[in-house]
Amino acid sequence: YGFLRYSAQRMGLDHYGLEISRYANEMCAKLFGFTNFEGDIWQYNKNQKYDIVTCLDVIEHVKDLDSFIAETKKYVAHKGLIVVRTPNLCSFEHKCFRSKFYSLKNEHLNYFSPLSLAYLLSRHGFSIEFTITSSHLFVGFNNFSIDCLVSNLEGSDIFMVARLNEAN
User: Fold this and answer.
1) Which residues touch 160 (CB under 8 Å, ≥6 apart)?
2) Residue 157: how many CB atoms within 10 A of its CB?
């Protein structure tokens, strides 16, 4: 809906959005006055490189991951970053709730652990700079320390930052 773009704008950063959802694009325009390219990465055909490309809650929906990462990589500047957030199949929540884990959805075609996501990105010439997981469910429980989930990378969502290697 444009929240990240709004933060970037407040920091004085140039930003642009690509969003497949018409509804999300309408909300982005309504909330912040931003326009996005409406479509997927294969329809986006600009000769532009970006210092940071974000894929937040995207890759779990993609049919062909290798093609998607290769296409996305075209838009990452030399030594630029890709930022990915996706559900964590190795999360404590998944271990607790199994088939009732809220991220198990029909529209999710791919599931990742921090290790499998790192492997995917590294195969495409990215080096992992930072990985953390977060838990939005257990954070609300009193006396439940989510620090153990974070330190063991067992939170419900993976947040990973990877840098495009110099050779690529």
Assistant:
1) 83, 84, 85, 114, 117, 118, 121, 128, 130, 131
2) 18
pLDDT interval class at 123 (50, 70, 90): very high
What is the C-alpha separation between 32 and 2, in angstroms, rounded? 7
Number of Cβ atoms within 10 Å of the Cβ of 55: 19
**Tens digits of per-residue pLDDT, 6-40?**
999 999 999 999 999 999 999 999 999 999 999 99
Q: Are 144 and 92 in contact (CB under 8 A)?
A: no
Tokens of 138: 């257990």
The closest of 106, 21, 102, 107 to 61, measured between CA atoms, is 107
Q: Enumerate the β-bridge partners of residue 134.
A: 157
Helix (H, G, I), strand (E, B) or coil at 68: helix
pLDDT at 143: 67
- Tell me how far apart the alpha carbons of residues 44 and 64 are, in angstroms, rounded to a whole number: 17
**Nearest Cα residue to 128 out of 113, 112, 117, 137:** 117
Amino acid symbol at 124: H
Q: Is 9 helix (H, G, I), strand (E, B) or coil?
A: helix
